[in-house]
Amino acid sequence: MKNASVAAGRVAAAAALLALTALLPWLTRTDPALTVLHARYGDAPTTPEQLSDVRDQLGLGEGPFTFLGQWARGLLHGDLGTSWVTGADVGADVSAAFGVSVSLMAYAMVVAVLVAVALCLPTLRRGATRPPGGVGAGILAALPEFLLASVLATLFAVRLGWFPAQGWQSPASAVLPALALGIPAGAVLGRLGQDALPAAFAEPWVRTWRASGLPRARIARHAARRALPAVLPQAGLTVVGLTGAAAAVEAVFAIPGLGGTAVAAALDLDLPLLQGCLLVLLALGVAAAVAVGLLRRRLLGPALKAGALPGLARTPGGGPARHYAAGALAAALLAVIIWGLTRDPLQVDLAARLAPPSAAHPFGTDALGRDVLARLGHGALRTLAVAAAVCAACLVAGVALGLARWTAGFSEVANALPAILAGLLVTGLFGAGTAGAAVAVAAVGWAPLAAHTAALAETERASGHVEAALVHGAGRRHILRHHVLTGVLPPVTRHAVLRLAPTTLALASLSFLGLGTQPPTPEWGRLLMENLPYAERAPWSVLAPAAALACVGALAVLAASGRRR
Fold it and tell me: 463 - beta bridge partners?
């Protein structure tokens, strides 16, 4: 019954997403014929006759549902149609891009797993003696992928010449983009592993095994096995994310992958190509979810059905040193923000463009001569407030939908949707602006939290103390409030806090495309993206916002782990 409801949810969510995509030109209130002509011929002048011919060629006059019906009929015969822009076969283009992206994803997942294992090794060695640090994971998770890609390309490809700077010719071409994608993704997986391992070490069987004199390595191996089911759903979502949301890294290294193809198709309103990319991403998401589900059940074993799993154990807090470190870091960041608020963020001085740090400009200036410190300070409230609101909304939605077992298919589909496409859809409905960008990021950002919630809730419902409560006549609401939520909420909340910096970057990417906060309003992510072309010449222009995001990532981990469960 559960599998049938999940499958029905997948089909319904995928159908709704594909239908919304077919409505994209009409939702955005743009002339798709004009957009397609610009994509074909650049800024060359267009005539009414050309626009009329394109509308007739593409069948735009018949409406979106006619297009969707024709596309669906072609799909039943294995035909994804032809690109509106290039006229090429969509199936061939998508297959080629998918092959490149899957290869890149595989390399990036290897990097992510290695990073996650490296972050979890100290926790495995010390067991439950003290909680994990996690600051390093928070900083790595906050690193912008596009900035990391640019730094790696400049250092190891351009200056040292160790790896190709662009293209996709050999396995060597995958090293730098795999590092750029895999390090932040591995940091998130590693932090979730760090969070799950102390709970595993705190379970009663560990004390019994230690009293029996079993080797520490064997106990650590079984603790890792117990913690892995909580992390596996995120790994499955990461597989899809690294395939479809790698457009920025693909652009830096000129890699013809699926993420860049989907984003370009969305911006050009090339609906057949966009539909084909989404269909492949949705299929990959379902395949990854099924594989993860089977592996989780194998790891949990018969105890899952028997209701004999240990409950999510409580683990100790971080102690006063962690509180002091969080306070010191917060005070330093607040001092910088207040200092920046005393300066003018909009004053343009072309004579001082890209000026290095000095007494007049402590953090230097950007490409227009604007003070980086001022823009950092004035952008803090907007950046952090909007990102925090989005994370809070994602947390509420993720927990609520993750506890409802039938919503698993919806979270898989939401995770497969690139944030830029979500931004285009939301912008068409509500218009460009900060609120629209926030809604777009929240529309896809709840999926990882829902998957995490569902994995923990499944384990908690199969625990012995829940079975005992049921025997004593506890109702479903009592079980949910006093047993399931008490075990699920703390780790999922820490997961949501960990995503504060990545959420900031997702909002910035939409703003950079004109779908979010409009210039010249200062915003940390916009500071990064606007000054990225000048990073080699004026590294201070991107160092300040990148350091601020890293501080937020570290502070989020310190604050969230000060009190654990």
Answer: 309
- Widest distance between CA atoms in the chain: 85
What is the Cα–Cα distance from 85 to 41, expressed in whole angstroms?
9
What is the C-alpha separation between 487 and 306, in angstroms, rounded?
Answer: 19
Q: Tokens for 326, please give them.
A: 């969080």
User: 170: helix, coil or strand?
Assistant: coil
Give per-residue pLDDT as tens, 489-548.
888 888 888 888 788 877 777 776 666 667 777 878 778 878 888 887 888 888 888 888
* Distance separating alpha carbons of residues 177 and 159, to the nearest angstrom: 16
Ranges of beta strands (E only) in 306-359 are: none
Name the token pair of 183.
């390090």
Query: Which among 440, 415, 461 has a CA at the least distance from the CA of 513?
Result: 440
Q: Which residues share a beta bridge with 365? A: 371
Residue 253 has pLDDT above 70, yes or no: yes
Q: Where are the strands (E) in 199-317, listed by range?
A: none
Distance CA 453, CA 279 (A): 26
Sign of CA dihedral 462, 466, 468, 469: negative
C-beta of residue 191 within 8 angstroms of C-beta of residue 138: yes
The residue to which tokens 């979500």 are assigned: 422
Give the count of beta carbons closer than 10 Å to the beta carbon of residue 342.
9
C-alpha 362/C-alpha 52 separation (Å) is 56
Render pLDDT for 146-205 as a digit per residue (tens, 0 to 9). Answer: 778 888 888 888 888 888 888 888 888 889 999 999 999 998 898 888 888 887 887 778
What are the C-alpha distances in Å from 112 to residues 175, 188, 238, 397? 13, 9, 9, 27
User: Do 132 and 195 meet the contact criterion of CB atoms below 8 Å apart?
Assistant: yes
- Tokens linked to 428: 């068409």
d(CA 493, CA 391) in angstroms, rounded, equals 9
Question: Which residues is 309 bridged to in the sheet?
Answer: 463
Nearest by Cα to 84 from 40, 24, 145: 40
Phi/psi for 431 (5° steps) reads: 90, 160
On whether the CB atoms of residues 113 and 521 are closer than 8 A, the answer is: no
Phi-psi map region of 110: left, alpha, beta (phi>0 left; psi -120 to 50 alpha): alpha
Cβ pair 28, 428 in contact under 8 A: yes
What pTM does this model have? 0.83
